[in-house]
Design goal:
Structural class: mainly alpha
Radius of gyration: 23 Å
CATH architecture of the largest domain: Orthogonal Bundle
Strand content: under 5%
Mean pLDDT: 83
Helix content: 55-70%
Largest sheet: 2 strands, antiparallel
CATH superfamily of the largest domain: Intergrase catalytic core
């Protein structure tokens, strides 16, 4: 078994360079950067043991199908599901493409069929439940400014269709709030989202109660010690509220964004407009909400029709 120290395998330096490239050149999220870099390091560690040789760019550029199948099989043994396996192989391909580009040579990967992933239709939250969830989260807080913060965040997810990361990346520069705000989404793309009066009121209430300085370039949403609020805090508070209200286990912060899209579609919004509001790069990502709406109608039918 070869040494797995970075000094023993030049490929670890390539993985570090790729990590920096993803963060600074591609402006990927911290979560994506960590996940992709971890995949690259796992691949190098596997190859060191599998091949019993020093792992460098030359080896990475001449992998065969057996190498990739072996890596995937090892990851499968650790309990990796199809969706995670597909993401792992996507990260591997991206890393190898970076290695090839760095070496100035074309990438020729062996043909491998990606794991089949069943596309799950998001489960929307009923409008009344979405509002009840946001209000319950706020009511559970003893500190008024924290309650106002949590209410504002969840209303941003449901009322404006923001991702959790997009909401937490907002700065006080959004004030004074008009009828819309500019949001920075995935891959640093910006879009304009409308702000409903109730959401505007909630954001202004939080601003007025927050005990920390809200400079224009500072994070808008703060933790109790004044630092930037983490997404784990949002997910945990939603999970507790979900249990208190007896809501479905798939009622998550991201489900509020799904609900925003589903309810707009049900009320006649067209897919192109919805695509712009959600910040989807392609229309195919937005089209899944037509399936969500159909599934919702079938639920109504089954629950209401006497012969269903």
């Amino acid at each position: 078994m070869t040494d797995l120290l970075p000094s023993a395998h030049p490929a670890f330096a390539l993985a570090a360079a790729w990590e920096e490239y993803l963060r600074h050149n591609r402006r990927r999220s911290d979560h994506t950067v960590r996940a992709y870099a971890a995949t690259a390091r796992r691949l190098i560690g596997f190859l060191a043991q599998h091949r019993g040789e020093t792992v460098d760019s030359a080896m990475l550029l001449h992998l065969d199908a057996g190498d990739l199948r072996g890596f995937l099989a090892q990851r499968r043994q650790s309990g990796l599901a199809n969706a995670s396996a597909a993401r792992e192989m996507s990260a591997v391909r991206a890393f190898l493409a970076f290695v090839a580009d760095t070496a100035g040579v074309p990438l020729t990967l062996p043909k491998m069929q990606s794991p089949k992933v069943e596309r799950r239709v998001p489960r929307p939250v009923a409008p009344a439940d979405a509002i009840a969830l946001a209000e319950d989260v706020a009511d559970a807080q003893d500190v008024p400014w924290v309650a106002a913060r949590d209410l504002a965040i969840l209303l941003l997810l449901y009322g404006a269709g923001l991702r959790v990361g997009e909401a937490l990346s907002l700065t006080p520069a959004i004030f004074p709030i008009g009828k819309s705000v500019r949001v920075t989404g995935k891959r640093n793309k910006t879009r304009i989202v409308p702000i409903l009066p109730k959401l505007k009121t909630a954001l202004e209430a939080y601003r007025d109660l927050c005990p920390y300085p809200l400079g224009r370039d500072l994070p808008l949403f703060r933790g109790v010690r004044g630092g930037a609020l983490g997404s784990d805090v949002v997910r945990r508070t939603v999970r507790h509220a979900r249990h208190r209200l007896g809501l479905h286990g798939r009622t998550t912060p991201h489900a509020l964004r799904h609900s925003f899209a589903t309810h707009l579609l049900a009320r006649g919004a067209d897919l192109r407009s919805l695509q712009e509001l959600l910040g989807h790069a392609s229309l195919s990502s937005t089209q899944m909400y037509t399936a969500v709406d159909a599934a919702h109608l079938m639920d109504v039918y089954r629950n209401a029709h006497p012969r269903a």
